[in-house]
Amino acid sequence: MGLRGSDAVVLAIVLGLCMIPQGEAQLKYGFYRDTCPQAETIVMEEVTKGVHNDPDLAADFVRMHFHDCFVRGCDGSILINSTPGNTAEKDSPINNPSLEGYDIIDNAKTRLEAACKGVVSCADIIAFAARDSIVLSGGFGYAVPAGRRDGRVSRISETFTNLPPPTFNLTQLTQSFASKGLTQQEMVTLSGAHTLGKSHCTSISSRLYNFNSTASTDPSLDATYSAQLKHDCPQGSTDASLVVPIDPPSPTVFDSSYYTNLLVNRGLFESDQALMSSPVTAAQVRLFSYAEFIFKKRFAEAMVKMGHIGVLTGSVGEIRLNCRVVN
Ligand code: HEM
Ligand SMILES: *[C@@H]1O[C@H](CO)[C@@H](O)[C@H](O)[C@H]1NC(C)=O
Ligand SMILES: *[C@@H]1O[C@H](CO)[C@@H](O)[C@H](O)[C@H]1NC(C)=O
């Protein structure tokens, strides 16, 4: 007995629904259209104000979204304060003191609570702020699917096991991103976020002074650049606030120069330069270095995908009233 036409249509719809990737299905474009139509405008205004006062903050919001999503999913756990019994993600040496901008998220949240009480999650605020920061820096804008809910747990230990360190090689980076459902190509694309911002000298001191038993400085680093870095990051300096730009040619502009640097051995971290260590990833680096349009477009797509990692939706989790404390 064959299928009737109407059965076939129903079957096609059911199969079609099954094929929508799990994470993709849960967030929605225009999630706050009815419940808080001004949500994205409020976030955009506060981020714009913050970045206007301190252009370095754009990099922080992009990194904040990454560090939120890779640890327990994009659930706003990066924003939770430590308590007497628990040291939170934000107090990990990976995030503190380098990650800033929490006060700007608070400003947005305060206005959102006044406008639409208990509706807009802290996790969504971070996702919007990351997108707005990319746009303010010259990257492409993109629609952010929303509806993330906030988690209630934030543990320092999980930052060490989930965030890749700057010493990772290509295999390790690829594995780290694969464990979050991201491809190697997306890893190479998202690393392009290092077109923005700065690094503390502490993050590169081993590469400059303590590389391995035969070479104190990583010999794969361009010699002129390593001399410059050693000048800016003196060995044994006790000044923990010393920083260098990750993409010296244009640290506040979202462009392709991060990839151009890699072509001439000027990636700041071993994890950056590692993208040149296989033919496939090196080809992607070369493409992005001259095709800025393609880089910006792929970056926007990869950010949307990263924003789906481990999200809490529906009635799971909560809408935190203060992003720094669980309800
Ligand atoms: C691929 C693996 C990655 C590694 C190993 C890595 C590592 C690092 C390190 C060590 C720093 C410097 C922190 C400091 O000392 O101040 C940094 C900064 C930064 N990272 Fe990454 N990162 C990676 C991927 C990403 C991704 C996927 C994004 C976002 C999509 C991102 C965005 C940023 C930004 C914007 C900064 C500059 C922060 C600032 O100026 O305050 N990173 N990263
Ligand atoms: C990457 O690092 C891991 C762990 O140290 C090591 O086992 C592996 O051989 C390295 N891979 C490459 C391609 O260097
Ligand atoms: C030190 O690093 C260089 C450059 O990566 C490498 O050629 C050399 O084999 C390494 N030496 C040791 C002992 O690991």
UniProtKB/TrEMBL annotation:
Domain of life: Eukaryota
Catalytic residue list: 67 (proton acceptor)
First and last residue of the signal peptide: 1-25
Alphabetized UniProt keyword annotations: Calcium, Disulfide bond, Glycoprotein, Heme, Hydrogen peroxide, Iron, Metal-binding, Oxidoreductase, Peroxidase, Pyrrolidone carboxylic acid, Secreted, Signal
Sequence positions that bind Ca(2+) 1: 68, 71, 73, 75, 77, 89
Location (main, coarse): secreted
UniProt cross-references to InterPro entries, sorted A to Z: Haem_peroxidase (IPR002016), Haem_peroxidase_sf (IPR010255), Peroxidase_pln (IPR000823), Peroxidases_AS (IPR019794), Peroxidases_heam-ligand_BS (IPR019793), Secretory_peroxidase (IPR033905)
Catalyzed chemical reaction(s): 2 a phenolic donor + H2O2 = 2 a phenolic radical donor + 2 H2O
Record-level GO BP terms: hydrogen peroxide catabolic process; response to oxidative stress
EC number: 1.11.1.7
Site entry (Transition state stabilizer), positions: 63
GO molecular function, one term: lactoperoxidase activity
Disulfide bonds listed in the record: 36-116, 69-74, 122-323, 201-233
Leading EC class: oxidoreductase
Residues annotated as binding Ca(2+) 2: 195, 247, 255
Domain Plant heme peroxidase family profile: 26-327
Annotated CDD domains: secretory_peroxidase
Coiled-coil regions listed: none
Family classification: Belongs to the peroxidase family. Classical plant (class III) peroxidase subfamily. Belongs to the peroxidase family. Ascorbate peroxidase subfamily.
Name of the protein described by the UniProt record: Peroxidase
Organism of provenance: Colocasia esculenta (Wild taro)
